[in-house]
Write a structure and sequence with these properties.
homodimer, mainly alpha, Multidrug-efflux Transporter Regulator, Chain: A, Domain 2, 2 domains, two-stranded antiparallel ribbon, 67% helix, DNA-binding, MerR_fam (chains A, B)
DNA sequence: TTCCGTTGGAGAGTGCGACTATCTAAACAT
DNA sequence: ATGTTTAGATAGTCGCACTCTCCAACGGAA
């Protein structure tokens, strides 16, 4: 397959594919002559993954490169590769220190994780970016006067805990060499699914309660 | 309160506050002289909301302006104001038409919403941005060969349906004039909460299954 | 064999979004 | 009197994701 065909079949312009090649998001094709290279199905597949991460998952290009390099890092076991890839994904800014709302938020988050049996030796400790994002968001809500203590957070935690089990069931069904990619793709691409379903559910529930039905 | 104090108490630089004033995200202060204005607690509160939406919720500045104007639109009832504000929020790109994966995705999403008793006359129909985001994400997963039919989506839908009930309970506890802002703030700011909890849950579950425990 | 279109490679340019800096004249603050 | 702060306006910066332009080397059809 030549560049033009790769572009055609993926719906990505040749200019953008060249850009991704330059940025190291795609392996160079097999060089046939000085000005010709041949691409295979695996290039098409990788390109589709890259596009999905960038366009649907809103992952920045430089981050995508890091995620992809974690995918192929043979020196790590499956859990570590998934961990490295997920840590590289975009997160909200780290919490502002020296702030009373951040202090309270840290405290509530610590209490929450205490009540769940999540083992932070597996990578969910206070230093992980996801933990920081959680603290930042809880602090912002606190500053605005909206409740988000353990009582409010627990239902969310229990819900996503359930979901993560069914999701990893899905991942486990793939052959071992495809599992890390599956975990990353599902982590990133199920986020918009989750968020849009939530917005639809909220719209429905809000209508049920607050709509004028004359 | 002068500009400098507003800046101090909010942690936002005076240059950025001026920028927000220019962009219409903040009401001008009460003009005392030609070169002096007085800001009140409501400015501080609004500024904190703006910052939370922009920094934590990653809402673009122009979108924030639209959301805020929906908040104060007296001509709409509560549900419509929430609807307008939520529709303005950022969404993944609309689905690519004339694409087999998009067709399949539309079909699966329609089946899913059929099985739930969500009433699309309330604003969750196929033309809403959240619906489009859902189709886009499902199509991307489909193209990559990951399963996301009704069977996989239903658990997500049921989970967020539960959450939206408890969330709207929270909103309903506020006095009527604060409800729309509460709905918007909770919609936007619980998103990072949900996503970071999910990543923590997945990290934990992945560790439980795939970690080398020697 | 002669062209016209395509390719890989590399650098420069574009458009956008979110600030940030500079400037001016007025008005406090000491 | 004088140094600081302010509103208001304009211009500049920075990062990001492309997108454009060139070039010399092919490769396929006439």
């Amino acid at each position: 397959m030549k560049l033009a065909e790769l572009s055609e079949r993926s719906g990505v312009s040749t200019a953008t594919i060249k850009y991704y090649l330059r940025e190291g998001l795609l392996q160079p094709g097999r060089r046939v002559t000085a000005t010709q290279a041949e691409y295979g199905e695996e290039h098409l597949r990788r390109l589709r993954l890259v596009r999905a991460l960038i366009q649907v998952g809103r992952v920045p290009v430089s981050t995508t490169r890091e995620v992809l390099s974690a995918l192929g890092d043979e020196s790590l076991d499956q859990h570590s590769r998934i961990g490295v890839a997920v840590e590289a994904l975009p997160h909200a800014p780290l919490p502002v220190e020296d702030d009373p709302a951040t202090e309270r938020a840290r405290h509530e988050v610590a209490k929450l994780l205490d009540r769940l049996d999540w083992d932070d030796s597996r990578g969910s400790g206070p230093s992980s970016p996801a933990y920081g994002t959680l603290v930042t968001a809880v602090a912002a809500l606190t500053r605005l006067g909206y409740p988000c203590g353990v009582e409010e957070l627990l239902p969310y935690a229990r819900a996503v805990s359930q979901l993560s089990v069914t999701e990893l069931d899905l991942v486990a069904r793939f052959p071992e060499e495809e599992r890390v990619e599956a975990a990353v793709a599902l982590t990133v691409l199920y986020e918009p699914v989750l968020l849009s379903l939530r917005r639809l559910a909220e719209t429905d529930e809000s209508g049920r309660r607050f709509m004028n039905t004359e």
